[in-house]
Amino acid sequence: MTLIPLRDGDWPDPPASPEATPFVAAAKEGRFLLRRCTACGKAHWYPRSLCPFCLGETAWEEASGEGTIYSYTVLTREDPPRAIAYVTLAEGPTLLTSLVDCEAGGLAVGQPVRLVFAASKNGTPVPCFRPVGNLSGAPPGAP
């Protein structure tokens, strides 16, 4: 059994930028923001002021924080172990992130996950995801 903890305070500090200020402010309130193009309507990650699909203007919107695991790997040589994953958000974009508060053997592609913020070394919220359900990642009530 390989438990992957949240590791609060163990993340590198994200670079500060004026463009990321609204995202960080919302994250400190527990809200997860994405940018969506006002021209083509597509949401994207990493947040940018110009749409990566059509170069249209974008606007912030609050995301659900729900997603599914697209791909993942477990770094068992780290102490404690770490899980890196691509998570596809319910809104469409896929982001590189970390899976936390889970059992490595219980992870699976397509598994539902939910956003949780971990703190970086200076306290800036870092978006991570944990499986929906219990620690093993199995849905509640599953054997």
Structural description of this entry:
The protein has 143 residues and is mostly beta strands. The chain has one helix at 21-28, and strands spanning 3-4, 33-37, 43-44, 58-62, 66-75, 82-89, 94-99, 102-103, 112-119, 125-131. The chain has a five-stranded antiparallel sheet. The model is unreliable at 137-143 (pLDDT under 50).
| Percent range for β-strand residues | 35-45%
- Biggest β-sheet strands, sense, barrel: 5 strands, antiparallel
The assigned structural class equals mainly beta
User: Low-confidence parts, pLDDT < 50 over ≥5 residues?
Assistant: 137-143
The total of beta strands comes to 10
Number of helices: 1
Helix-residue proportion: under 10%
Order of helices and strands: EHEEEEEEEEE
Shape: globular
Q: Record the strand order, biggest sheet.
A: 7-6-5-9-10
Radius of gyration: 16 Å
Arithmetic mean of pLDDT: 90
Distance between the termini: 16 Å
- Specify the oligomeric state: single chain
